[in-house]
Amino acid sequence: MVFLNTFCFSYASIDGNLKTDSLANTSSDSLLIEEEDSPLMFAKNQPHFKECSGIETNLERDQCTKALINEKIVANFTVPNFKKGKKINGIIHVQFVVTKYGTINNVRIIKGINKKLNKEAIRVIKELPKMIPGRNLNKNVSVMYTIPIRIQL
Predict the structure, then answer these.
(1) Domains in the chain: how many in total?
(2) What per-residue confidence (pLDDT) applies to 133?
(3) Which of 47, 63, 53, 46 minimizes the C-alpha distance to 128?
(4) 29 pLDDT band (50/70/90 cuts)?
(5) Is residue 9 a contact partner of residue 62, using CB atoms and an 8 Å limit?
(6) What is the pLDDT of residue 86?
(7) What is the DSSP string of the chain?
Protein backbone atom coordinates (compact mmCIF):
# COMPACT_ATOMS: atom_id res chain seq x y z
CA MET A 1 0.00 0.00 0.00
CA VAL A 2 1.27 3.42 -0.93
CA PHE A 3 0.47 6.45 1.15
CA LEU A 4 1.61 9.82 -0.11
CA ASN A 5 0.68 12.94 1.73
CA THR A 6 1.97 16.47 1.47
CA PHE A 7 1.30 18.86 4.27
CA CYS A 8 2.40 21.97 6.11
CA PHE A 9 4.18 24.61 4.09
CA SER A 10 6.99 26.61 5.58
CA TYR A 11 8.49 29.81 4.31
CA ALA A 12 11.49 29.63 6.65
CA SER A 13 14.86 28.79 5.16
CA ILE A 14 16.30 25.54 6.48
CA ASP A 15 19.86 26.71 5.89
CA GLY A 16 19.30 30.04 7.63
CA ASN A 17 19.83 32.28 4.59
CA LEU A 18 16.95 34.60 5.37
CA LYS A 19 16.59 37.44 2.87
CA THR A 20 14.31 40.38 3.58
CA ASP A 21 13.44 43.63 1.87
CA SER A 22 15.39 45.83 4.26
CA LEU A 23 19.14 45.51 4.59
CA ALA A 24 21.05 47.73 7.00
CA ASN A 25 24.15 49.64 5.95
CA THR A 26 23.97 48.92 2.22
CA SER A 27 24.07 51.22 -0.76
CA SER A 28 20.99 51.55 -2.94
CA ASP A 29 22.83 49.68 -5.75
CA SER A 30 23.60 46.65 -3.59
CA LEU A 31 20.07 46.71 -2.18
CA LEU A 32 18.63 46.59 -5.69
CA ILE A 33 20.83 43.61 -6.57
CA GLU A 34 19.88 41.85 -3.34
CA GLU A 35 16.15 42.32 -4.00
CA GLU A 36 16.38 41.06 -7.58
CA ASP A 37 18.66 38.07 -7.05
CA SER A 38 17.63 36.68 -3.67
CA PRO A 39 14.31 34.94 -3.07
CA LEU A 40 12.21 36.16 -0.18
CA MET A 41 10.82 33.87 2.49
CA PHE A 42 7.41 35.50 2.05
CA ALA A 43 5.84 38.34 0.11
CA LYS A 44 2.84 40.54 0.70
CA ASN A 45 1.13 38.66 -2.15
CA GLN A 46 2.43 35.10 -2.32
CA PRO A 47 2.78 33.31 -5.67
CA HIS A 48 -0.42 31.58 -6.73
CA PHE A 49 -2.03 29.60 -9.52
CA LYS A 50 -4.39 31.22 -12.04
CA GLU A 51 -7.22 29.11 -10.59
CA CYS A 52 -6.80 31.00 -7.30
CA SER A 53 -6.64 34.52 -8.81
CA GLY A 54 -10.32 35.31 -8.25
CA ILE A 55 -9.99 34.92 -4.49
CA GLU A 56 -9.83 38.31 -2.78
CA THR A 57 -7.90 37.73 0.43
CA ASN A 58 -4.22 36.81 0.46
CA LEU A 59 -4.78 34.11 3.08
CA GLU A 60 -7.51 32.33 1.10
CA ARG A 61 -5.54 32.65 -2.18
CA ASP A 62 -2.49 31.16 -0.44
CA GLN A 63 -4.57 28.30 0.97
CA CYS A 64 -6.00 27.62 -2.50
CA THR A 65 -2.49 27.51 -4.00
CA LYS A 66 -1.20 25.17 -1.27
CA ALA A 67 -4.13 22.83 -1.85
CA LEU A 68 -3.48 22.78 -5.62
CA ILE A 69 0.25 22.12 -5.09
CA ASN A 70 -0.67 19.21 -2.82
CA GLU A 71 -3.12 17.84 -5.40
CA LYS A 72 -0.55 18.07 -8.20
CA ILE A 73 2.15 16.35 -6.14
CA VAL A 74 -0.14 13.51 -5.09
CA ALA A 75 -1.51 13.07 -8.63
CA ASN A 76 1.91 13.04 -10.33
CA PHE A 77 4.16 11.28 -7.81
CA THR A 78 5.13 7.84 -9.10
CA VAL A 79 6.56 5.53 -6.48
CA PRO A 80 9.63 3.67 -7.79
CA ASN A 81 9.76 -0.12 -7.58
CA PHE A 82 11.28 -1.49 -4.39
CA LYS A 83 11.80 -5.03 -3.15
CA LYS A 84 8.54 -6.60 -2.09
CA GLY A 85 7.94 -6.16 1.60
CA LYS A 86 10.43 -3.32 1.96
CA LYS A 87 8.93 -0.64 4.19
CA ILE A 88 9.91 2.95 3.64
CA ASN A 89 8.52 5.70 5.84
CA GLY A 90 9.70 9.24 6.10
CA ILE A 91 9.46 12.80 4.97
CA ILE A 92 11.25 14.36 2.01
CA HIS A 93 11.83 18.08 2.55
CA VAL A 94 11.96 19.85 -0.82
CA GLN A 95 12.95 23.47 -1.25
CA PHE A 96 12.24 25.47 -4.40
CA VAL A 97 11.86 29.02 -5.64
CA VAL A 98 8.91 30.49 -7.51
CA THR A 99 10.76 33.11 -9.55
CA LYS A 100 9.60 36.65 -10.22
CA TYR A 101 8.50 35.27 -13.62
CA GLY A 102 6.34 32.54 -12.03
CA THR A 103 8.54 29.58 -12.96
CA ILE A 104 9.80 26.89 -10.58
CA ASN A 105 13.56 27.03 -10.08
CA ASN A 106 16.36 25.85 -7.76
CA VAL A 107 14.62 22.66 -6.68
CA ARG A 108 16.64 20.75 -4.12
CA ILE A 109 16.27 18.20 -1.37
CA ILE A 110 16.89 19.56 2.11
CA LYS A 111 16.36 16.18 3.79
CA GLY A 112 15.58 13.04 1.86
CA ILE A 113 14.71 9.38 2.28
CA ASN A 114 16.58 7.64 -0.54
CA LYS A 115 17.88 8.48 -4.01
CA LYS A 116 14.92 7.12 -5.98
CA LEU A 117 12.25 8.88 -3.92
CA ASN A 118 14.28 12.09 -3.71
CA LYS A 119 14.68 12.13 -7.50
CA GLU A 120 10.94 11.63 -7.95
CA ALA A 121 10.15 14.46 -5.53
CA ILE A 122 12.39 16.81 -7.50
CA ARG A 123 10.78 15.72 -10.80
CA VAL A 124 7.25 16.34 -9.51
CA ILE A 125 8.08 19.80 -8.14
CA LYS A 126 9.83 20.79 -11.40
CA GLU A 127 6.65 19.86 -13.29
CA LEU A 128 4.42 22.25 -11.35
CA PRO A 129 2.77 24.66 -13.78
CA LYS A 130 3.77 28.30 -14.06
CA MET A 131 2.37 30.47 -11.29
CA ILE A 132 1.49 34.12 -10.96
CA PRO A 133 4.58 35.50 -9.20
CA GLY A 134 4.66 36.91 -5.70
CA ARG A 135 4.49 40.68 -5.33
CA ASN A 136 6.08 42.94 -2.78
CA LEU A 137 6.24 46.74 -2.89
CA ASN A 138 4.45 46.67 -6.28
CA LYS A 139 7.17 44.50 -7.87
CA ASN A 140 7.27 40.86 -8.82
CA VAL A 141 9.57 38.96 -6.46
CA SER A 142 10.98 35.45 -6.19
CA VAL A 143 9.71 33.50 -3.19
CA MET A 144 11.25 30.41 -1.61
CA TYR A 145 9.11 27.49 -0.45
CA THR A 146 10.04 24.48 1.63
CA ILE A 147 7.52 21.67 1.64
CA PRO A 148 7.54 18.23 3.25
CA ILE A 149 6.28 15.21 1.32
CA ARG A 150 5.36 12.30 3.59
CA ILE A 151 5.99 8.83 2.17
CA GLN A 152 4.66 5.59 3.65
CA LEU A 153 5.22 2.41 1.65
Answers:
(1) 1
(2) 96
(3) 47
(4) very low
(5) no
(6) 75
(7) --EEEE---B-S-TT-----S--TT--HHHHHHHHHHS-BS--SB--B-GGGTT--SHHHHHHHHHHHHHHHHHHH--PPP--TT---EEEEEEEEEE-TTS-EEEEEEEE-S-HHHHHHHHHHHHTSPP-BPEEETTEEE-EEEEEEEEEE-
Average pLDDT over residues 48-67: 93
Contacts of 106 by beta carbon, 8 Å cutoff, 6+ apart: 39, 95, 96, 97
- Cβ proximity of 97 and 104 under 8 Å: yes
The structure's pTM equals: 0.74
Q: CA dist 91 to 31, 69, 113, 117, Å?
A: 36, 17, 7, 10
How high is the pLDDT of residue 79?
A: 85
**What is the CATH number for 62?**
3.30.1150
Range of the domain at 61: 3-152
The pLDDT, as a whole number, for residue 150 is 92
Pairing of strands 89-98, 104-111: antiparallel
Q: What is the mean pLDDT of the chain?
A: 79
